[in-house]
Design brief:
heterodimer; A: about 290 residues; alpha+beta; Enolase-like, domain 1; three-stranded parallel sheet; about 35% helix; about 25% strand; B: about 800 residues; seven-stranded mixed sheet; five-stranded mixed sheet; 18 helices; 32 strands; about 25% helix
């Protein structure tokens, strides 16, 4: 049994209390949601927070609902709830695609949207999904609320704009009628982190790509996205040729690194292949009726 | 001997003999009521934790334990220096080497044991490790086994007097000259290098021990995760000089062993020392990373194979050179005479003219151990080698691999067959088993569908330059035909540290006819409590629910070497049958006395002795048991009671075999492999409990898929183990496994009393080459002939591009 270093523990009963606790205890306090990233790191003693602020009683942050032009997802919503959400399935099947390949059912029952985003693991599938969809992240502190574009949320691997006494409370995704979306991932074994993964949405108009978003995981893409590929694709006919060009741009624009999962050129080639597959599938879904 | 004969059913609905029945032990396991090591809590028990080396190779300059000792909950801090004073700093390994219990001079692998803290609770013990200051002077490590013998390589084992290199042993088998002659005259010779990567047993329960040295009685009791409690007891006596009659080893429920729990680890010895020092029981249980990075690994064989054949596909010879990476201490578990285990079996299931192998063992700065892990003492490596070489030859000859095997398998009339390294295969009807498997797979139909798939791929533009064309996948079909030698073994040839590999067994039949069977082997999940009860039932007619199997406690069981190398049924299973027959023979004398006839007038019907021709005159085994304890006057020289004991020394190994066929789907664009079907036809002789056999095969097949596709303990060039967690060392899950398609043929072993051959490792041995052969077969359009395991998506993608990677070292 791996055992963590000593730490103190508080269980917050409201967002206000959580924020107040974080503010009182400073940078050495860490919020804990599902704990599937933080606890293993604590047990390996790679992370040594002096105090945990447990968010698991904050059921007020557990929801998936429409709010005007947006779908709002509470930060404490579990992966399993995303996978089971009819609302998301209707608007963005990319969520179900991705959730089916994120870790395993045990992790999905516990892990949260906010936790996944804040952990900022370079291979986090949900980060790539939210980046692809051009989502926004809502943060709360004692000073009030601010909203940050998902693509600007990350400063680097495992680094976000979240301040020490700030809490992510919600993720918002713009509703895009008629769009199609999809997620493609290659991993060494089901449940493993991606070797490379690509998610996207497309909105079609008269056979052309009116709008699109492409997200990448595990390949060193800034903000988990592929803006050059998106620019390349917008306005182009929704054809295999256009998808190929966008895929080339996505592969050229990312910065994968060689590691145990594979060499750099393999990962780049996967981005090429998976971008095409994701766009193909998203376009087919859009044509089949879309969101 | 047949498993299909009519078997009577007990009042509880169980077969009185061989047949399917639910496992007796599952009642407690399924309810979470097993008693594993970490469930055991003794009054006053303390907890130990080990400080390990961060370096692969470094000199220890100094160790300062003062801050740890000052921790309020710490009871003792033990270092190598303290152990030196007790003459316990080094312990013998199972291969006549020594291993540091705690490092004294230098550390020789990352994760090596450096200090031991004993504290009131596990958290404090772990906290105190961080208070120990160790100053290291790093040395260049030997990570690449292929460079271990180079001139000027750092000498790892300078503790061994006069040691100037990293060489451990050279060993050979077969006839070198005859093999060279066959190769010189052959039409076709093909060579292939291959690595069987270092893998880890990774049992669900990690290793651990609780030691309690009773200062009053001088008795040491150690509850340990051990597959071989009796061997451990004797080793403690030899290592620590403890009086053996004052040492008791108890192996409680074990959560998987796979060879990982054969040897004695430094942590076990440290728990003993901790208890001696503190006078209280000390528990040490390693965590997952410690298990993966410091306990017995398996394989790590760098092999160069050459195969010689005639143009028409008659295999003539096999020549092999192996470089064996044994890590920093030669701790492999294998019979003394066999430094490369039973690698002798590398000529496999084939009728060839000559064979020769040479194995060189080397030290590297990696964790010690080796041979552990469901491998029957290197049979796994040997089978992988020959089954890959046959496919390489098939590729060279342009011949179907099933047909090539068919032409070369040993024929039934050749048994007992002395192979080209001198081992005597007991029995087999190989061609039949292969045909059963091919039939079950629908082999020719599979080949037809494979051709269609390739045609579709080509039509979509598929080519080596455009592997992913049109999203078409490629099918691969792989065959392996394996023969194992298991059940070590005949005492005159096989021992571990001088202890012959025979097993004791005791049977007590109580007055009411209920029985207790005491075994020297120790289950780790194999279902011994059921299988061995069924053996007694088969021999005596006592229902299996009336037979209690007792094992794992050296004070309550006879001596024997434990469970590994598929030896429980071949050795202890035979012992259980023989001891039952001894009871049966005695029961006959008692029955004759009761029936006032001659024993010769009686005949045995399952569960009773009856007068020939007069079945009304009968005594059941239960009646006889009571009579044997009662007042009946017994013939002169016959003692009362119905107990017996035996020691079984097997006359030969048993040779289970099987034909496996794997079908994979490969996505050439991404390199992803999915195992679509797996057909496993095993011949392990009669099956005592077919359900348990099938369970063993299921587990072994999953294991083989894991090794073929994802498992490897890898190191970076500094000697850091990069596979120290289950996020990095991947194990297969149900999602990686198809629904297994099992079959059987039954060829009894002529020398085993039940004809049984053992099956514990068959699937682990036989499946990796089937999976690899299938993947390589799928890559035929790219001209791929070999790529080393694990065949991860990246490795397959690289193989398609002609540049597969080494899988032992990660840059």
């Amino acid at each position: 049994m791996q055992v963590p270093a000593p730490f103190d523990y508080d269980r917050a009963s409201s967002v206000e209390e959580a924020v107040a606790l974080l503010e009182r205890h400073g940078a050495e306090a860490r919020p804990i949601a599902g704990g599937h990233s933080l606890l293993p790191m604590m047990k390996l003693r790679l992370a040594r927070p002096e105090r945990l602020v447990d968010l698991n009683d904050l059921t007020e942050l557990s929801y998936v609902r429409t709010e005007g032009e947006w779908i709002a997802v509470g930060a404490m919503t579990r992966h399993a709830q995303l996978a089971a959400s009819d609302l998301l399935a209707r608007h963005y099947p990319i969520f179900q695609d991705a959730e089916r390949v994120i870790a395993d059912p045990v992790v999905r029952n516990r892990g949260t949207v906010g936790g996944s985003l804040c952990q900022g693991d370079p291979a986090e599938d949900l980060c790539a999904v939210v980046a692809a969809l051009g989502g926004q992240v809502v943060l709360r502190s004692s000073g009030g609320e601010r909203v940050v574009a998902a693509r600007d949320f990350y400063l680097g691997p495992y680094e976000t704009v979240v301040a020490p006494a700030e809490l992510v409370t919600e993720v918002r995704i713009p509703i895009r009628p008629g769009s199609g979306s999809a997620y493609e991932k290659v991993e060494r074994r089901p449940g493993d982190w991606a070797i490379a993964a690509v998610g996207c949405f497309v909105t079609l108009a008269q056979g052309s790509v009116a709008d699109c978003g492409i997200g990448l995981a595990a390949v060193g893409a800034n903000g988990y996205c592929a803006p050059q590929a998106e620019a390349q694709l917008r306005g182009q006919p929704a054809t295999e040729e256009s998808f190929r060009a966008a895929a080339e741009a996505a592969a050229a624009g990312c910065r994968p690194q060689s590691d145990q999962r594979g060499p750099e050129d393999y990962k780049r080639d996967l981005v090429r292949e998976l971008t095409r597959r994701a766009l193909r599938r998203a376009a087919a879904r859009a044509m089949a009726g879309g969101a | 001997m047949s498993t299909t004969a009519e078997v009577p059913v007990s009042p509880a609905g169980n077969p009185i003999g061989f047949g399917r029945m639910l496992r007796k032990e599952d009642q407690r396991f399924l309810r979470g009521q097993g008693n594993y090591l970490d469930d055991i809590k003794l009054p006053g028990m303390l907890h130990g934790a080990i400080l390990r080396s961060p370096f692969a190779h470094a000199r220890i300059v100094s160790i300062d334990t003062s801050a740890a000792e000052a921790h309020p909950k710490v009871k003792a801090v033990i270092t190598g220096k303290i152990l030196e004073g007790l003459k316990l700093a080094w312990m013998p390994t199972l291969s006549h080497d020594v291993q540091a219990v705690l490092a004294t001079d230098k550390v020789r692998f990352q994760g090596q044991e450096v200090a031991f803290v004993v504290a009131e609770d596990r958290y404090s013990a772990r906290d105190a490790l961080e208070l120990i200051q160790v100053e290291y002077d790093p040395l260049p490590p030997v990570v690449d086994a292929r460079r271990a013998l180079e001139e000027g390589a750092p000498v790892i084992r300078d503790d061994i007097e006069g040691k100037k290199d990293n060489h451990i042993f050279d060993w050979e088998a077969g006839d070198r000259e005859a093999t060279d002659r066959v190769f010189a005259g052959a039409d076709v010779v093909v060579a292939q290098d291959m690595l069987y990567p270092r893998v880890h047993p990774a049992p669900m329960e990690t290793c651990g021990s609780i030691a309690h040295m009773d200062r009053v009685t001088g008795q040491l009791t150690a509850w340990s995760t051990t597959q071989a409690p009796h061997a451990h007891r004797t080793l403690y006596a030899l290592v620590a000089g403890l009086p053996e009659h004052k040492v008791r080893i108890i192996s409680p429920d074990i959560g998987g062993g796979f060879g990982n729990k054969v040897g004695i680890y430094p942590g076990y010895v440290l728990a003993v020392v901790g208890s001696i020092v503190t006078g209280r029981p000390v528990k040490w249980v390693e965590d997952r990373s410690e298990n993966l990075t410091s306990t017995s690994f398996a394989r790590d064989y760098h092999m160069h194979g050459e195969i010689a054949a005639s143009r028409d596909g008659k295999i003539l010879g096999l020549r092999v050179k192996v470089l064996a990476d044994h890590g920093a201490f030669n701790g492999t578990a294998q019979p003394t005479k066999f430094p490369a285990g039973f690698f002798h079996i590398f000529p496999g299931s084939y009728d060839l003219e000559a064979a020769h192998c040479q194995v060189t063992g080397v030290y590297t700065n990696k964790a010690p151990g080796g041979v552990a892990y469901a491998c029957s003492f290197r049979v796994t490596e040997a089978v992988y080698l020959v089954e890959r070489m046959v496919d390489v030859l098939a590729d060279e000859l342009g011949m179907d691999p099933a047909e090539l095997r068919r032409r070369n398998l040993l024929r039934p009339e050749q048994f007992p067959y002395t192979n080209k390294t001198g081992w005597v295969y007991d029995s087999g009807n190989y061609a039949h088993t292969l045909e059963v498997a091919l039939e079950k797979a629908g082999y020719s139909e599979l080949r037809r569908r494979q051709e269609e798939g390739r045609a579709r791929w080509r039509a979509a533009g598929g080519s080596p330059e455009n592997p992913g064309a049109g999203g078409q996948h490629l099918m691969g079909i792989g065959i392996s035909f394996f023969t194992e030698g298991v059940g070590a073994g005949p005492k005159k040839h096989m021992d571990i540290l001088g202890l012959g590999m025979a097993d004791g067994c005791e049977l007590r039949v109580h007055p009411t006819g209920k029985a207790q069977l005491r075994l020297s082997v120790q289950t780790q999940g194999q279902g011994h409590e059921t299988t061995f009860a069924q053996i007694v039932a088969h021999e005596l007619g006592i229902p299996p629910e009336d037979v209690e199997v007792i094992h794992g406690d050296t004070d309550n069981t006879p001596f024997g070497l434990g469970t590994y190398g598929s030896r429980s049924t071949p050795v202890s299973g035979a012992a259980a049958a023989v001891v039952s027959r001894k009871v049966r023979d005695k029961a006959r004398i008692i029955a004759a006395a009761a029936l006032e006839c001659s024993p010769d007038d009686l005949e045995w019907e399952l569960g009773r002795w009856q007068v020939k021709g007069d079945p009304d005159k009968v005594k059941t085994i239960q009646e006889i048991a009571m009579l044997s304890h009662g007042t009946l006057e017994l013939p002169e020289g016959v003692e009362g009671h119905l107990d017996a004991s035996v020691v079984y020394d097997p006359p030969n190994l048993t040779y289970p075999y099987g034909a496996y066929i794997c079908v994979v789907d490969v996505d050439p664009a991404t390199g992803r492999v999915q195992v679509e079907r797996f057909i496993a036809v095993d011949d392990c002789g009669p099956r005592i409990n077919p359900m348990i056999v099938e369970g063993q095969v299921h587990g072994g097949l999953a294991d083989g898929v894991g090794m073929a596709l994802m498992e490897a303990i890898q190191f970076d060039s500094s000697g850091n183990c990069v596979s120290g967690s289950l996020m990095d060392y991947l194990l297969p899950t149900s999602l990686d496994c198809p629904s297994w398609e099992l079959g059987e043929t039954v060829t009894p072993s002529p020398h085993h009393p039940l004809g049984a051959k053992g099956v514990g490792e068959s699937a682990t041995v036989g499946s990796p080459p089937a999976v690899v052969n299938a993947v390589i077969d799928a890559l035929e359009p790219f001209g791929v002939r070999h790529a080393d395991m694990p065949l991860t998506p990246a490795q397959v993608w690289l193989a398609i591009r002609g540049r597969p990677l080494r899988t032992d070292i990660v840059e």
